[in-house]
Write a structure and sequence with these properties.
Largest sheet: 6 strands, parallel
Radius of gyration: 15 Å
CATH topology: Rossmann fold
Order of helices and strands: EHEEHEHEEEHEH
Structural class: alpha/beta
Number of helices: 5
CATH architecture: 3-Layer(aba) Sandwich
CATH class: Alpha Beta
Strand order of the largest sheet: 3-2-1-4-5-8
CATH superfamily: Isochorismatase-like
Length: 187
């Protein structure tokens, strides 16, 4: 049987309403991530948290050692759940994430977190390229409005475009409800 791990990407204080870089729908996405996290914990499956810190004190958010760079209280890790510290968009780049997965003989990843168009996109594509089977829980991910060529692109459209792209060639993209129903049936 394939071994799976839940990867929680950058569910950190600065992305929440009182943080430096709030995301659209982050509270609802975090609540869905918590539902998936609880299912993984109950099943005894691996859980790995990823936390971003920029290396510069003048970073727009996630400044080193700041409260904003800490994991949000909704998803604090338990003692047996490692936290991978990253400094780049791709959580595999210059971190121990792949080594942690290999130590646990993980072949399947379930990904939740932020931001859909950056760190979620990067980790899913990298994981697929490394040979992992990947599932993204789309309603447990969040992003924010973007601007391109003088045009504002609403967060929902940014999120939808990235989820569609990942579903096209890199991952299974499902809702938390769909995933949890299938997860419960397989248990």
């Amino acid at each position: 049987m394939a071994k799976q791990a839940l990867i929680l990407i950058d569910i950190q204080n600065d992305y929440f309403p009182h943080g430096k870089w709030p995301l659209d729908g982050v509270e609802a996405a975090a609540d869905k991530a918590v539902q998936v996290l609880q299912a993984f914990r109950q099943a005894g499956d691996a859980v790995i948290h990823v936390r971003h810190e920029f290396t510069s004190e003048d970073a727009p958010f996630f400044t080193p050692g700041s409260e904003g760079a800490h994991l949000h209280s909704k998803v604090l890790n338990e003692a047996n759940e490692p936290v991978v510290l990253k400094h780049f968009v791709n959580a595999f780049r210059e971190t121990n994430l792949q080594a942690l997965l290999e130590q646990r003989s993980i072949t399947e990843l379930v990904v939740v977190g932020s931001m859909s168009h950056m760190c979620i996109d990067a980790v899913v594509r990298a994981a697929a390229d490394l040979g992992y089977t990947v599932t993204v829980i789309h309603d447990a991910c969040a992003t924010r409005d973007q601007e391109f060529n003088g045009q504002l692109i609403p967060a929902a459209q940014v999120h939808g475009a990235y989820m569609a792209s990942l579903a096209f060639g890199y991952a299974s993209v499902v809702s938390a409800g769909e995933y949890l129903k299938a997860h419960a049936a397989a248990a």
